[in-house]
Amino acid sequence: MAAAPGKVARMGSPVTVLGTDLVVKKAWSRRPRILQDGHELPRDRWGAPVLLDEDGRSHQVQASFSWGQLSPVVEVAGEKVLGQAPLSTPVRVALLVFIALGLAGGAVGVVLSVGAALVSAALLRRPGRNATHVIGAVLAPLVAAIVFVLVAVWLQ
Predict the structure, then answer these.
(1) Is 47 or 146 the better-scoring residue by pLDDT?
(2) Where are the alpha helices (DSSP H) in the chain?
(3) Each residue's pLDDT tens digit, 9-33
(4) Dihedral Cα 85, 142, 129, 27, nearest 10 deg
(5) Taking CA 44 as the corner, what is the angle to CA 38 and CA 47, rounded to the nearest 5 degrees?
(6) Are 46 and 33 in contact (CB under 8 A)?
(7) How far is CA 92 from CA 8, 74, 98, in A?
(8) CA distance 35 to 12
(9) Number of other residues whose CB lies within 10 A of the CB of residue 62
């Protein structure tokens, strides 16, 4: 089930594992949703999602969120697959430092820094990335920092 590039963020993250196209939604939540052809995967008796391969064998599917890559990760039969294209190391380090700085700002700082980092990562991963996307990815953390300062001044 391939999605249009602009619709991926709303639909979730598409991943291909064991030759099967899956979509991961809410990977950062306690119980992420893993969809195949628009329907959730069946669950075993312990509640874990199960994927059948071409031979009919069932494999447990685990989805998690990699804060290092700001991307969902799906693991099936020992194979880990990132849900989105990996970020370059300098970009990843800069976004993680920005999130760490946001921790010093309390709840408002964390929300703004994580939100801005996720927006920046999404813009940098767009398939037809152009200069506008890069500028937007740079401006998102700057706008978050300005909003944080304005909120801090307003609350004093």
Answers:
(1) 146
(2) 8-11, 89-103, 106-124, 131-155
(3) 455 778 888 888 888 888 777 778 8
(4) 30
(5) 80
(6) no
(7) 21, 20, 10
(8) 9
(9) 14
- pLDDT single digits (tens) 92-101: 999 999 999 9
> For tokens 């820094």, what's the residue?
113
Whole-number Å distance between alpha carbons of 116 and 118 = 5
Q: How confident is the model at residue 49 (pLDDT cuts 50, 70, 90)?
A: confident
Backbone angles phi, psi at 51, to 5 degrees: -120, 130
Closest listed residue to residue 48, CA positions, set 13, 17, 67, 74: 74
Phi and psi dihedrals of 5, rounded to 5? -55, -35
Between CA 2 and CA 37 the distance in angstroms is 10
Judged against a pLDDT cut of 60, whether residue 69 lies above it is answered with yes
Facing residues of 125 across strands? none
Helix (H) / strand (E) containing 52: strand 50-52
